[in-house]
Design goal:
Layout (H helix, E strand, L loop, with lengths): L2 E6 L2 H6 L7 E4 L14 H15 L4 H16 L5 E6 L4 H14 L8 E4 L14 H9 L2 E2 L3 H12 L3 H10 L7 H11 L8 H13 L4 H11 L7 H14 L1
Parallel strand pairs: 1-2, 1-3, 3-4
Antiparallel strand pairs: 4-5
Amino acid sequence: MPVQYHILNGDALKNQFPKAITGKLIIARECLIEGPTQETDFDDFFASRATFICKTHTETEENYIKNVKSEFQKILNITQDCEINLWFEQDLFCQVNLWFVTSLIAKNPHLNKVFLVMPNEHSPYTFGKLGEAELIKAYKDRKPINKLENFAELWRHYQNNDLENLRLLAEKLQNKFPFLLPAIEAHIARIPKKNNPGRPINTILEIMTDLKTEDFSSIFREFCKRESIYGFGDLQVKKLLEKAKKLQ
């Protein structure tokens, strides 16, 4: 049996990863739905990301390089004959990270045994609700990505803010990967326009009106219910709430 690599969408999944599934773990610790993504050189890309993360989060550049960049470097270092399993959810947060990961794998055409592992239909936006048996089943139900370049191309369109081709490619892949189009439509809808602050902020404004509150915890819980497609964490929603308050 070929060596197994499992690229996970964060440390939470690492902590619950079934011991019965063998292989080497790589953790994708990033939030590429925000901040700069334009750099194409690997080192320049992560230098730009490190600057952004350190300014907007409580992180140091040293820790970022050690804990984040180093994990993605491991992907570039895979050279042996192996199977790569990509454990990612269907929300936009996860999908953007997935597209970036596939762009790294695609740099080595020798790596052509790539599979996508996703939560079941009852929990499409989180592995967190799955028990060990359900995670093992998700692994057994993995889908091959026969044309990895298609996913890598999604990253390039996202990176270049080419929304038209991003949507067109998702439509092309819809039969086999139907989760792509809803995530991409959610991405397009979040971009502010002339008199429209974007779908996430509009949703927060609606929640503030419906619940008659500006309490972050209440708003965050409700936002996660209404807009689970985004996969936003508390930091993203806090920023959106601050912008929403200014529009009242």
